[in-house]
Amino acid sequence: MVDDGLWDRVDVAHLAVLRELAEHGSVTAVARATVLSPSAVSQQLKVLQRRLGLVLVERAGRGVRLTDAGRALAGIAASVSTALATAEADWQRYRGGVGGTVRLATFHSAGELLVPGLLDRMAQHPDVVLETFDEDVLQDDFAGLTADYDVVVAHRSDDVVPPRRDGLEVRLLLREPLDVALPLDHPLAGRDRVTPADVIDEDWIVPPPEFPIDRVLTALAAQARSPVRIVRRTTHLPLTEKLVARGHGIALLPRHTTRDRAEGRLALVPLADLRAGRVVEALMRPDRAARRSVQVVLDALVAEAASYAV
After folding, report:
1. Are 244 and 183 in contact (CB under 8 A)?
2. Are 107 and 135 in contact (CB under 8 A)?
3. Are 175 and 241 in contact (CB under 8 A)?
4. CATH code for residues 99-174+279-306
């Protein structure tokens, strides 16, 4: 017999908790994300299982995991959340108003580049509260942050296949070229451009492995057929700039982010014979992307990024 009475037995709030468990992986993490106690999360899951007569969650070591039925229902929950958010956005659009809180996570240099102008643009929407957070992770780990934030600004090198981001909305913001940063008194500082062969034997200041800039350096080394001589690693771009300016090495730095601070301190020289850049994108869960307040923030973010597009 076909079970056609799902919605007679399911509470949307309980479905949302199940979906969060699929995203976060533990009851404790779900409790933090939903502002519920762990016991309340567990109770809602028990009620959902009892009403459906199915085991949705099972013990796994000290934690829990979803069963096949749980994963299937979590996928349905994601669709329901998106539909509800779309309906709410349509209603807000009809009423002519938009409000709410939007949580935006950016890696450090993207925040520096985009957030000040974004806040200027958001002044037109006083009822939307924009909260900003710093999150600098490996490029393949940005997708996981969408469980905790409405919009995640991520970056990746533009010479690789994008990492898997199943079930996410992805919006291109901009491609930012990477230039070779040199001390002002460096013999190559006055060049219009430099090749990998010109700079491969220099001392390099680089980010940790698997960050987009480091991946471009790997391509640079392959083209020059020589390894990069690394003398320092840091993710902090202002520190890298200071080290370059004082002659402690050279670096690849994002053009738009660095340009204003570089004037009178260091030279930014384009790299020839190699496509060097990073792609900056906004990642969102579909249900959050459907929210009217998130759409407003995203539109402002895209407009701000467009002012730097090349």
Report:
1. yes
2. yes
3. no
4. 3.40.190.10
pLDDT tens, the chain, 310 aa long: 445 566 666 778 888 888 888 888 888 888 887 778 888 888 888 888 888 888 888 888 888 888 898 888 888 888 888 888 777 777 777 777 788 899 999 999 999 999 999 999 999 999 999 999 999 888 888 988 998 899 999 998 886 667 677 789 999 999 999 999 999 999 999 999 999 999 999 999 999 887 878 888 888 999 999 999 999 999 899 999 999 999 999 999 999 999 989 999 999 999 998 888 999 999 999 989 999 999 999 999 999 999 987 5
What pTM was computed for the model?
A: 0.79
CATH of domain 175-272: 3.40.190.10
Q: How far apart are CA 5 and CA 53, in angstroms?
A: 12
CATH architecture of 6-93: Orthogonal Bundle (1.10)
Which of 286, 290, 289 has the alpha carbon at shortest distance from 90?
Answer: 290
Tokens of 29: 């993490």
Please give the span between the terminal C-alpha atoms of the chain, in angstroms, as a whole number: 60
Cα three-residue angle 254-297-96, rounded to 5 degrees? 160
